[in-house]
């Protein structure tokens, strides 16, 4: 990515040119480039240093011949995680969220880093339209950082967690607040209040480009108006603790994304506001960029369960 030039480098095309210059036939060069730069970002990240080294070499030598402008691009999600995981780590958001939802924070929030699991099939990218789910009225964004995993993590500790971190992206945990309030009563976590869109993008900044992870500036704008600003300094649980906890008993994969949790004042709910169809939501994270999405129209005519009679 060349944000300052509003251009992208097609790494596969650049690597084909590099291999041809070294004597490979076009067919052989394409086979090699397709292996190092597959369609899946998760598969590419799983290659480890080979992916980054080849990307740097290809972009440095032939990036100018294999680049194109941002204009006209259709953006995929920055990652294709095996499963979506989203944390709850920002103190101000935890407090304000519970106040707005008229809930008392559970003592367990102070005992373990809470997170939930969502569907990877509803991940969307930069500039994608956000589907408006059935029966939802109060729609919301959530300004978060996406911690991108670089190598398999299983039963790791906070002391080693940073070595498993590949990079940083922007994560928008879109939420249907009215559906969420009803689902809370069931006590099994969010389902239809989240099962429609997770924004991930616009790209990944590798971890070596950040000197600190606890002072990253963040902001959200709706239709050009700033609705919230803050940074990553107010986290109840550290990045390393969150990643380590997620890995306990589980196998976190390369390319998986773990949401940081929503920044304080990083949701419309905390402001007593909500979104409308057609609203444009922009999340900005310093060192990454801007993830922009437009809210779609309300879904009509979708089946919905009929309430049952009490059985107790």
UniProtKB/TrEMBL annotation:
Record-linked InterPro entries: Fumarylacetoacetase-like_C, Fumarylacetoacetase_C_sf
Keyword terms, alphabetized: Hydrolase
Superkingdom of source: Bacteria
Domain Fumarylacetoacetase-like C-terminal residue range list: 83-294
One function term, GO molecular function aspect: hydrolase activity
Pfam assignment, any one: FAA_hydrolase
Protein's recorded name: Fumarylacetoacetate hydrolase family protein
Biological source species: Ramlibacter henchirensis
């Amino acid at each position: 990515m060349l944000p300052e030039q509003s251009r992208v480098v097609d790494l596969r095309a650049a690597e084909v040119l590099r291999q041809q210059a070294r004597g490979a036939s076009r067919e052989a060069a394409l086979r090699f480039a397709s292996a190092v730069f597959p369609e899946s970002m998760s598969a590419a990240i799983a290659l480890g240093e080979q992916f980054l080294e080849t990307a740097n070499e290809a972009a440095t030598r032939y990036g100018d011949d294999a680049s194109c402008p941002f204009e006209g691009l259709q953006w995929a999600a920055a990652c294709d995680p095996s499963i979506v995981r989203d944390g709850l780590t920002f103190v101000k958001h935890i407090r304000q969220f519970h106040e707005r939802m008229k809930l008392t924070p559970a003592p367990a929030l102070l005992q373990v880093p809470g997170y939930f699991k969502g569907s990877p099939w509803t991940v969307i990218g930069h500039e994608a339209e956000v589907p408006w789910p059935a029966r939802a009225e109060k729609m919301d964004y959530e300004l978060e950082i996406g911690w991108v995993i670089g190598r398999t993590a299983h039963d790791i500790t906070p002391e080693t967690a940073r070595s498993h971190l590949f990079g940083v992206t922007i994560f928008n945990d879109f939420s249907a607040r009215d559906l969420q309030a009803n689902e809370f009563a069931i006590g099994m976590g969010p389902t239809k209040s989240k099962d429609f869109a997770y924004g991930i993008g616009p790209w990944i900044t590798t971890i070596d480009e950040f000197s600190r992870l606890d002072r990253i500036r963040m902001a959200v704008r709706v239709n050009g108006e700033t609705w919230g600003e803050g940074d990553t300094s107010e986290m109840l649980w550290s990045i390393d603790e969150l990643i380590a906890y997620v890995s306990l008993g589980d196998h976190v994969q390369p390319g998986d994304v773990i949401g940081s949790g929503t920044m304080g004042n990083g949701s419309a709910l905390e402001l007593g506001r909500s979104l409308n169809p057609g609203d444009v939501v922009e999340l900005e994270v310093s060192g990454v960029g801007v993830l922009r999405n437009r809210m779609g129209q309300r879904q009509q005519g979708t089946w919905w369960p009929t309430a049952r009679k009490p059985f107790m």
